[in-house]
């Protein structure tokens, strides 16, 4: 039999990963046998523990040795609101893992666009001179191009310029006496491919044949 691993490229569990994809793919459980194939349905990429390493790598790449992590706050930002509590849970889990990780950031914080703690309050949330903000999204879109830059104060309004990658190239910025680095969405990192492979290995470890 041919084996097929299906890895949802989503940041967290939710309606699409639990309802829509299994229904559309006609899955009956973790493994579905159909048409001479074994279909293995893995967890979404965003909840794998190796996402923590990816966030750490991105934050360190952003500051590039210019400032020490000990004087830097790392803020992982998501959408928020009750539409998908699993998304906030995924971010909170990553923040806790980052706090326990080997890199001694002064603070690791979760923040959201539409619920407290608000990313717009980053100046009061972060108590360090250096701040790195990483959007916890699979892809760059209006949130990371336009909305979050306005909430951070990088842009005064959602302009056409803010919708282009240029918004990620002007790092760092000096805002209100702080040095701020703003990253593109974590899901755009090339190393996400490794997280997808890790999720396949995680499936095999927890669903032995």
Task: Please characterize this protein's 3D structure.
It is a single chain. The protein is α/β, with parallel strands linked by helices and 209 residues long. It has a five-stranded mixed beta sheet. Strands 1-3-2 form a three-stranded mixed beta sheet, with no helix packed on it. A hairpin with a 2-residue loop joins strand 7 and strand 8. The longest helix has 16 residues. The chain starts with a strand and ends with a helix. The mean pLDDT is 91.
Task: Reconstruct the topology from this structure.
Layout lengths: L1 E5 L8 H10 L6 E4 L2 E5 L8 H14 L8 E7 L6 H16 L6 E6 L9 H4 L4 E6 L6 H11 L13 H4 L3 E3 L2 E5 L9 H15 L3
Question: What percent strand?
Answer: 15-25%
Radius of gyration, Cα only, in angstroms?
19 Å
Strand order of the largest sheet: 5-4-6-8-7
SSE order: EHEEHEHEHEHHEEH
Mean pLDDT: 91
Q: Bin the helical content.
A: 25-40%
Provide a count of the helices: 7
> What is the number of strand segments?
8
Distance between the termini: 13 Å
Summarize the structure.
This protein is an alpha/beta fold and 209 residues long.
Q: What features would you highlight for this structure?
A:
8 strands, alpha/beta, five-stranded mixed β-sheet, 7 helices
